[in-house]
């Protein structure tokens, strides 16, 4: 059920995110901003089943809209142009991005009322935890 993800989430902790950004090829200046940013993640679902996920920071706001299981073109906050597909797998929202023969996976799940985002690129794993906002 996607409904459990709906709402506004605020980043409360982040582990190994710089290493993850390095692994996906993010440049130094953008990594510095990425580490400073404390994004709000806003997730909504409309009546047609289209999910919107908006990441809001003081630097940049990015939004993606998608239907589960349908591939779409995404321009990421760090400027990558990816083919992205999001599925619901055992209660996890799994986002797979592919570009330039590379692939990364972002798994979002609700654990103890918090949204946990696990970012995986090869053997590098970052974990970001968001608390429910207002």
UniProtKB/TrEMBL annotation:
Domain Cytosolic fatty-acid binding proteins positions: 7-24
GO-annotated molecular function: retinal binding; retinol binding
One Pfam entry name: Lipocalin
Classification via InterPro entries: Calycin (IPR012674), Fatty_acid-bd (IPR000463), ILBP (IPR031259), Lipocln_cytosolic_FA-bd_dom (IPR000566)
Keyword Transport among record annotations: yes
Keywords noted in UniProt: Retinol-binding, Transport, Vitamin A
Protein family: Belongs to the calycin superfamily. Fatty-acid binding protein (FABP) family.
Role this protein plays: Cytosolic CRABPs may regulate the access of retinoic acid to the nuclear retinoic acid receptors.
Full protein name: Cellular retinoic acid-binding protein 1
Organism field: Cottoperca gobio
């Amino acid at each position: 059920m996607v409904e459990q993800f709906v709402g506004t989430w605020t980043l409360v902790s982040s582990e190994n995110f710089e290493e993850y950004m390095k692994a996906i090829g993010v440049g130094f200046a953008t990594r510095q901003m990425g580490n400073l940013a404390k994004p709000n993640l806003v997730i909504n679902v409309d009546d047609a089943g289209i999910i919107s996920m908006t990441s809001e920071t003081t630097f940049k706001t990015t939004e993606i809209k998608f239907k589960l299981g349908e591939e779409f073109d995404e321009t990421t906050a760090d400027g990558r142009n990816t083919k992205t597909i999001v599925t619901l797998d055992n209660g996890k929202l799994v986002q797979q991005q592919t570009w330039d023969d590379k692939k990364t996976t972002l798994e979002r799940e609700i654990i103890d009322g918090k949204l946990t985002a696990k970012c995986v690129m090869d053997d590098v794993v970052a974990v970001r935890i968001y608390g429910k906002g207002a």
